[in-house]
Amino acid sequence: MTAFEHISPVAIVTGGSRGFGRAVAAALLERAWTVVTDARRAADLDATAAELASQRLITIPGDVSEPAHRAALVVAAIDAGPLRLLVNNASRLGPSPQPRLADYLAADLRAVYTTNVFAPLALIQAALPALTGNGGGIVNITSDAAVEPYEGWGGYGSSKAALDHLTAILAVENPAIGVYAFDPGDMRTEMHQAAFPGEDISDRAEPESVVPALLRLLETRPPSGRYRAQDLLAVGADA
User: Fold this and answer.
1) How many CB atoms lie within 10 A of CB 132?
2) Rounded mean pLDDT of 57-77?
3) Which residue did the predictor score with more confidence, 197 or 84?
4) What is the DSSP string of 171-212?
5) pLDDT digits (tens, 9 = 90+) for 156-173
6) How far is residue 229 from each of residues 57, 159, 197, measured CA to CA in Å?
7) Catalytic sites, residue numbers
8) Which of 5, 14, 23, 169 has an alpha carbon 20 to 30 Å from 117's alpha carbon atom?
9) CA 65 to CA 150: how far, in whole Å?
10) In this structure, which topology does domain 10-238 adopt according to CATH?
C-alpha cells in the first residue's frame, strides 16, 4: 500500500457550478474523490455546493484568468490530499451572438483567449509538479469547433484549437502523466444556448450523459491525445 492509498484523491475541476463541470464534479464525488472547484458567479457555486452536499467538495469563487485565484485552487487541492487530476473545463464563449472574425473586437478576442488558453496553461504550470509526483492526469475540455471551421466560431474555435495544440505539446513534454484534450460534443448548457440565442437546443445531450465518456478516459488511461466523447462511449458499448 502506498502512502496515498487511504487518502481520497483530489481533482481540480474549473467551472463546476453548472453544466459539464458540475456533472463531472458530482461524478467524481460519488467515486470518493475530493473535488476543488470554482465559478465566477459565487451564488451559483453556493447553490451547487448545497445541492451536492459533500464534505469532500471545496468551492472557491473566482475567475481562472486571475493569478491569485489559480494559486488558491492549487493550494487548496494540495492541502486536501494527493492532487491527481486537473480538468480545465471553465471556458468563455465570447460575444453572443458570435461575430464574424472581420467584426471581432480585439478586447473580446483577448478575453476569450485569456480564459480558454492562457488560464488553463497557467493552472497546469502551477499544478504540474504535484500531478507529476502523484502520477496524475490533465484533461483540457475542447470542442469540435477547434477542428471544424464553423462560420461565426472564429474566436472560440481558434482558442480551442490553440488549447488542443498546447495539450499535444504538453503530452510530448510530460510522458509520465496522461494529458488529454476531451471533446464532449454538443450539450444542453448555458454557454451552448448563448452560442445559439433564441434557438431551441433541447435536442442536445444533457451534460450528465457525457460524463461516462470522461470517466472511461480516466479509468482506462489510454495514450495521451485528443479524444471525442462519442468515440469513447462507442468503445464502452462494444466492450
Assistant:
1) 12
2) 98
3) 84
4) HHH-TTSEEEEEE--SB--HHHHHHSTTS--TTSBPHHHHHH
5) 999 999 999 999 999 999
6) 25, 20, 25
7) 156
8) 23
9) 26
10) Rossmann fold (3.40.50)
